[in-house]
C-alpha cells in the first residue's frame, strides 16, 4: 500500500504543535519548514483540552486557523484525534476516566496516555471528538492520513476494567468449569464458583512483581484483554472517522517491539502501520533493523511510515546523546531501506516548557535556520525530493522468515522457571542478528502468516504452539522447507497448560526428538558442543534429548549429559527440521545459519562488509539496493550488478568498488532482470 494516493514521494515532516505558540510565530514556521523540504505536518496530537474546554462546549477556531494556514502553504496533514490525553475538567468530573495502576493506586489528573480504556466517559467522549473532527475537516483535501490518539499503551486495573474482564472471560470460556480448567485453578485451591470472584491479576492478587505471577493463565488472559481493550478504543475512533472520510487511511503510531500490545493483532485494524523509532544510545543497527522489519512484518510486508524520530536528541533517556552528524540521515534511510514510505520527526519546533523542552526539533529554541540540525534536515529534504516516487510501495521478497508472537513472548516471560535470564526477544535477536550480519534479509511473520513463500522458517523458543501451528510447520517441511526451533519449545498450548506426553509436545514428531529434561545454567557457567569441527559454548539452557528419528549434529561435551544431542536435524518429507537445544555464541549462529542458507540456495544481498547494512526493496520501477555504513569510518563496497546510484544519478558497473564515508548511504537502482511480469501481475503499490 502506498501511504496515500495523494503523495508521490516519501512524505517528510512530523509533529507540529503550533497551539503551543503565539500566532506571530506560525508564519515564520511555515517559511522555515517549507525551506527545509518538509511536506507533511502531524497536527492536533495533544489538543483535547483546547478543543473541548468543558463538557458542553467544543471550540475549533484555533485548529481551523492552523488547518487553513498549513493548507495555504501547501502542506499535507496527518490529522490526529487528540485523544491520547484527556482534559483536566473531565478527570475531575468523571473519575472513571482515571486509571488504576498495577499496585492498586488510583491516579489523579496528570500525564498522558492516561485514560482507562474501559471508562464509559473515555469511550463516549473520545469517539465524539473523533467524529466532530472528521466532520469538520472532511473537505480538507490535504489530509492524507488520520492519526488516532497517540502511542496507545499501558494498562489499567480499575473496577470498570475488572467488570469488563469478567465479561470478556465469560465470552471466551462460556462456563466457569472451562475457565477453571484453562487456568488450572485446582492448583492452590483457586477454583472459582462465581464470576464475581475473579479479580484482576496485579500486585493486590496473583502478582508479586510486574512480570511475575503465580497464575500464568489469568495473567496471560489479562494481557490479551488489555491489548484488546485498547485496540477497541482505536477501533471505535476508526469507525466513526471511516464513515465520514472513507478514502483517508487511518493509523496510530506504534512503538516497535512494545510488549504490552499485540501489534500483530492490532495490525488487522489499521489501514497502514506507522511507528516511532527512538533507539537508545546503545542500540545496534541490527536492533533498529529488527524493529523496522517487525513493523513491516505485522502487516504482511506492506510499506509503513516512520511516524516519529528525533532529528537530534531525546529528552527521556538517562544520557541524551546527540545524533552525530549524518546519523539522522542514516537512520532515516535505514527506515526507508526496511520499507518506510514516510520519514517523519517529533517535532517541528521545540517547546518552551514541560518535559519536552529539551527534546530535539527541526526548529530549535534559537528560532532560526542556522543550526546543524536544521541544515541536516534540509539536506535530507532535498534528497528525498530527488528520490521522488522511486521507492514508493516497494516491498521485499525474502526467503527467510523469523517467527514472532506476542502471546509466546508474554507466556515465556511469565513462566516461573526454568531461567529468569530467558528473554524471548534475546533469543529471536540471536538469529536475526546472525542473518543481518550476512546480508540475508528476513521477514518477521506471525502465527497467521503463510509459510509457503519461504525456504527457511526460524521460530526460536516456540514455547507456545496454538491453533494447530505444528500442522502448518509439518506441511512446510514436508514440501521441502527448512525449519529451525530451539530449546524451550513445544511446551504449552494456548492457555499455558503443558502438553503432556513428552517435550517438545506437538513438535516432537516433526523434530524427531524427545526432550527429557532441561538444565538451566547460571550466567557464569557453560557447557560445550562441537559443530562442524568447531567448539561452541552451550549457555542458558541445555536440553537433554533423545533421538527419535533425528540425527545429532552436535553433542554436549561435559556434565552428566555429556554425549547427548545439543543440535539435531530431522529429515521430514522433502525438508529438514532442526532443533538447537541450547543457546550459543554469535559465531555459532552465524556459521549455522550460513550453512542452512547455502543448503537452501539462499544468497546474501551482497558480500558482507563489517557494519555495512544491506537491504533490498522492489517495485515496478525497479529494485533498490540500500547500503548503509553504520561504521565510524569509511568502508569499501563492491558492486555485484550494474545499476544507477539513485541519489546522484551516476551509473555504476559490476565489479566497481565504491568507498562509502562513515555513516554514508548509497542506494543503487538495479535494472530489473526479473522484471518482466511486473505491471499486471505484481501491482505492489496496491
Ligand atoms: C513519543 C510521543 C511524542 C513525543 C516523543 C518524544 O514518541 O509520541 O508525543 O513525546 O515520544 O520522544
Ligand atoms: Zn480501567
> So how many helices?
18
Bound ligands: alpha-D-galactopyranose, zinc ion
Could you tell me the strand content as a percent range? Answer: 15-25%
* End-to-end separation: 5 Å
Share of helical residues:
25-40%
Query: Major beta sheet, specifics?
Result: 9 strands, parallel
Radius of gyration: 26 Å
Strand order of the largest sheet: 7-4-3-2-1-11-10-9-8
* Arithmetic mean of pLDDT: 96
- Low-confidence runs (pLDDT<50, min 5 residues)? 675-686
> What's the number of extended β-strand segments?
29
Q: Name the structural class.
A: alpha/beta
Sum up the overall morphology in one term: globular
What's this, in brief?
The chain is α/β, with parallel strands linked by helices. Strands 7-4-3-2-1-11-10-9-8 form a nine-stranded parallel sheet, covered by helices on one side. Strands 13-12-14-15-21-20-19 form a seven-stranded mixed sheet, sandwiched between helices. Helix 11 links the parallel strand 10 (304-308) and strand 11 (340-346).
Amino acid at each position: 500500500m502506498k501511504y496515500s494516493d495523494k503523495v508521490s514521494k516519501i512524505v517528510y515532516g512530523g509533529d507540529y504543535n503550533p497551539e503551543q505558540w503565539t500566532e506571530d510565530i506560525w508564519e515564520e514556521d511555515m517559511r522555515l519548514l517549507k525551506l527545509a523540504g518538509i511536506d507533511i505536518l502531524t497536527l492536533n496530537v495533544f489538543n483535547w483540552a483546547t478543543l473541548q474546554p468543558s463538557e458542553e462546549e467544543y471550540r475549533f477556531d484555533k485548529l481551523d486557523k492552523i488547518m487553513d494556514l498549513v493548507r495555504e502553504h501547501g502542506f499535507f496533514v496527518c490529522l490526529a484525534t487528540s485523544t491520547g490525553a484527556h482534559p483536566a475538567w473531565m478527570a475531575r468530573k468523571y473519575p472513571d476516566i482515571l486509571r488504576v495502576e498495577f499496585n492498586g493506586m488510583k491516579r489523579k489528573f496528570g500525564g498522558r496516555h492516561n485514560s482507562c480504556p474501559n471508562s464509559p466517559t473515555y469511550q463516549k467522549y473520545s469517539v465524539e471528538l473523533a467524529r466532530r473532527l472528521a466532520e469538520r475537516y472532511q473537505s480538507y483535501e490535504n489530509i492524507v492520513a488520520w492519526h488516532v490518539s497517540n502511542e496507545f499503551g499501558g494498562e489499567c486495573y480499575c473496577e470498570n476494567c475488572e467488570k469488563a474482564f469478567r465479561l470478556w472471560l465469560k465470552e471466551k470460556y462460556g462456563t466457569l468449569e472451562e475457565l477453571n480448567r484453562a487456568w488450572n485453578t485446582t492448583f492452590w485451591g483457586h477454583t472459582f464458583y462465581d464470576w464475581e470472584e475473579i479479580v484482576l491479576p496485579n500486585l493486590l492478587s496473583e502478582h508479586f512483581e510486574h512480570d511475575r505471577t503465580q497464575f500464568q493463565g489469568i495473567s496471560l488472559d489479562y494481557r490479551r484483554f488489555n491489548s484488546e481493550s485498547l485496540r477497541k478504543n482505536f477501533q471505535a475512533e476508526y469507525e466513526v472517522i471511516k464513515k465520514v472520510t472513507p478514502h483517508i487511511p487511518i493509523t496510530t503510531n506504534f512503538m516497535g517491539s512494545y510488549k504490552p500490545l499485540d501489534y500483530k493483532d492490532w495490525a488487522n485494524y489499521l489501514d497502514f502501520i506507522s511507528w516511532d523509532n527512538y533507539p537508545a544510545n546503545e542500540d545496534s543497527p541490527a536492533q533498529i533493523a529488527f524493529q523496522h522489519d517487525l513493523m513491516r512484518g505485522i502487516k504482511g510486508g506492506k510499506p509503513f511510515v516512520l511516524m516519529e524520530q528525533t532529528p537530534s536528541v531525546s529528552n527521556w533517556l538517562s544520557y541524551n546523546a546527540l545524533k552525530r552528524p549524518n546519523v539522522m540521515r542514516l537512520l532515516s534511510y535505514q527506515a526507508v531501506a526496511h520499507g518506510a514510505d514516510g520519514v517523519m520527526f517529533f517535532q517541528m519546533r521545540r517547546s518552551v516548557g514541560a518535559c519536552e523542552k529539551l527534546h530535539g526539533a527541526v526548529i530549535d529554541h534559537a528560532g532560526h535556520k542556522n543550526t546543524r540540525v536544521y541544515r541536516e534536515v534540509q539536506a535530507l529534504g532535498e534528497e528525498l525530493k530527488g528520490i521522488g516516487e522511486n521507492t514508493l510501495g516497494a516491498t521485499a521478497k525474502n526467503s527467510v522468515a523469523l517467527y514472532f508472537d506476542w502471546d509466546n513472548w508474554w507466556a515465556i516471560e511469565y513462566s516461573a522457571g526454568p531461567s529468569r535470564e530467558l528473554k524471548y526477544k534475546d533469543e529471536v535477536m540471536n538469529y536475526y542478528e546472525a542473518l543481518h550480519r550476512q546480508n540475508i534479509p528476513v521477514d518477521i511473520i506471525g502465527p497467521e502468516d503463510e509459510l509457503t513463500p519461504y525456504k527457511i522458517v526460524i521460530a526460536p523458543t516456540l514455547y507456545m504452539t496454538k491453533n494447530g501451528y505444528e500442522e502448518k510447520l509439518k506441511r512446510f517441511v514436508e514440501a521441502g522447507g527448512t525449519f529451525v526451533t530451539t530449546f524451550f519449545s513445544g511446551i504449552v498450548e494456548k492457555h499455558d497448560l503443558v502438553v503432556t506426553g513428552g517435550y517438545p509436545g506437538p513438535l516432537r514428531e516433526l523434530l524427531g526428538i524427545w526432550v527429557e529434561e532441561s538444565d538451566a545454567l547460571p550466567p557464569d557457567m557453560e557447557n560445550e558442543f562441537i559443530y562442524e569441527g568447531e567448539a561452541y559454548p552451550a549457555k542458558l539452557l541445555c536440553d537433554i534429548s533423545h533421538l527419535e528419528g533425528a540425527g545429532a549434529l552436535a553433542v554436549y561435551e561435559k556434565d552428566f549429559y555429556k554425549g547427548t544431542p545439543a543440535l539435531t536435524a530431522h529429515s521430514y518429507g522433502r525438508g529438514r527440521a532442526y532443533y538447537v537445544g541450547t543457546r550459543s555464541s554469535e559465531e555459532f549462529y552465524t556459521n549455522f545459519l550460513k550453512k542452512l542458507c547455502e543448503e537452501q540456495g539462499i544468497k546474501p544481498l551482497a558480500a558482507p562488509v563489517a557494519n555495512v547494512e544491506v537491504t533490498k526493496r522492489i517495485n515496478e520501477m525497479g529494485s533498490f539496493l540500500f547500503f548503509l555504513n553504520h561504521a565510524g569510518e569509511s568502508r569499501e563496497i563492491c558492486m555485484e550488478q550494474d545499476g544507477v546510484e539513485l541519489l546522484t544519478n551516476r551509473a555504476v558497473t559490476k565489479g566497481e568498488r565504491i568507498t562509502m564515508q562513515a555513516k554514508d548511504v548509497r542506494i543503487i537502482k538495479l535494472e530489473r532482470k526479473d522484471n518482466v511480469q511486473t505491471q499486471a501481475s505484481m501491482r505492489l503499490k496496491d
